[in-house]
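yo

u said u wanted the structure for the complex thing, so here. seqs first:
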Amino acid sequence: NAGVTQTPKFQVLKTGQSMTLQCAQDMNHNSMYWYRQDPGMGLRLIYYSASEGTTDKGEVPNGYNVSRLNKREFSLRLESAAPSQTSVYFCASSEYRAEQFFGPGTRLTVL
Amino acid sequence: GQQVMQIPQYQHVQEGEDFTTYCNSSTTLSNIQWYKQRPGGHPVFLIQLVKSGEVKKQKRLTFQFGEAKKNSSLHITATQTTDVGTYFCAGSAAGNKLTFGGGTRVLVKP
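structre next:
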């Protein structure tokens, strides 16, 4: 089992460019999440999907969109990247009210 | 919205000493989880507490959930260099969403 995988591992964008971060889990979890972690800080929830076919905003959704493609995959899209979106992005999955399993993260720099 | 605060933000510990990190929520929680993140790594689940006043131990780590279910603590005894990292608490008031605290960064002096 690979657990939670994320691609890419690193990305550098210019202001205004768009990109999609990919996340997949092989644990058959219903719930998936996208977080961002800024240097020296905790994790902030961007969007989550409680189950296939549903998505909801988290604490910091502005500037992002998500797609729950199927039960395994949950993607995060930046339509027009800004320097304030420079961060490490973590995807996670879980069953209801259970421990969350995190992917290795995507380190994004927006110039 | 729900806020979760952790203190201290940094903890410098001599190897072999004990320390405690504290977590406080602005709202009553249904459960609280603790995670550890090594430098450059991703958060890894340690434990979940659900009941009021619950205490759980994992080797040298002791986790406690407050009676009012608004606070929690993590106590580490006989700190080792392998304890280096950031410890996060994360609380859930309802549903599946977790609100993470800012973390306590632990540095161990050999």
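The interface with chain B takes residues 31, 35, 40-45, 48, 50, 58-59, 90, 94, 96-105 of chain A (CB under 8 Å). The longest strand of chain A covers residues 87-94.
cya
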